[in-house]
């Protein structure tokens, strides 16, 4: 009986010491550390002194630390209590602050998705002087090389600062902010739009062909045949156009559109170049 009582007392003391130690390390009003929970592919960190290193789970991030993912990489960050940040392929963020009021990061390129729980404060994503944030919900922010920005409010309301035309997005809405300053808010589409006006004739004698189409405004469009690629950016109405070089014979032409959040869609068509027969005609592309 005495041994049982002694065992209970010892276990209670151990639990008490452990609880005290945890509260000393993580008091209720202290900032929850920003931790790398998991990584996929190539992910590197850049610390405050500029040193670069491969990222492994468990790494704690602080102010001015930077995370970069390669084209094959993704990083999953945790702030505790269900709050997470997911850094998509080919993306980079820099930590601006980690406090008991929340986390703020600067998105330098690519896309990041945030899931936020109110127990650990707000999560803000900053780019080019504008900030998107939430205290309870989920949202995604992406920017492509042309400087076009997309924001989607997946769950709950998302606040937008630094933009006169939009102060908040409601659940299910998407903001497109183009590099020229134009913006539009609409419902999140089920899929990325891509309509290509292929040439009326599948055969030509010319060394290149003009391909036009329609996709989401600000999307990056890659067009190519036989390994030669051209990249253009869709304008504010979603239109794009590019001249595609052709080799003699069959040319499988591909068109790949990708929005700032990394969503992509593809179309393809085969065009035959036959420069031998006389009297070939210029290909006219009609909408």
Short summary of the structure?
By secondary structure, the protein is mainly beta. It has one helix at residues 2-25, and strands at residues 34-40, 43-46, 52-54, 60-61, 66-69, 74-78, 84-87, 92-99, 102-116, 122-127, 130-134, 137-143, 149-155, 158-161, 168-169, 173-177, 183-187, 194-197, 203-204, 208-215, 220-225, 228-233, 239-245, 249-258, 264-273.
Characterise this structure.
The protein is mainly β and 287 residues long. It has 2 domains: 31-187, Jelly Rolls, CATH 2.60.120.1440; 194-273, Immunoglobulins (Immunoglobulin-like, Sandwich). Helix content is 8%, strand content 51%. It has 1 helix and 25 strands. The strands form 3 sheets. It has a 17-stranded mixed beta sheet that branches. Strands 19-25-24-21-22 form a 5-stranded mixed beta sheet, with no helix packed on it. Strand 6 (74-78) and strand 7 form a beta hairpin.
Question: Structural class, please?
Answer: mainly beta
Q: Which range best describes the helical content: under 10%, 10-25%, 25-40%, 40-55%, 55-70% or over 70%?
A: under 10%
How much is the average pLDDT?
A: 87
Question: How far apart, in Å, are the first and last alpha carbons?
Answer: 90 Å
Q: Would you identify the regions where 5 or more consecutive residues have pLDDT less than 50?
A: 7-29, 280-287
**Radius of gyration computed on alpha carbons:** 26 Å
Sheet with the most strands, sense and barrel status: 17 strands, mixed
- The number of E-state strands comes to 25
Q: What is the string of SSEs from the N terminus onward?
A: HEEEEEEEEEEEEEEEEEEEEEEEEE
Write down the CATH class of the largest domain: Mainly Beta
User: Which overall shape is indicated by the principal axes computed on the Cα atoms?
Assistant: elongated
The CATH topology annotation of the largest domain reads as Jelly Rolls
Number of helical segments with 4 or more residues: 1
The overall number of domains is: 2
CATH architecture of the largest domain: Sandwich
Percent of residues in β-strands: over 45%
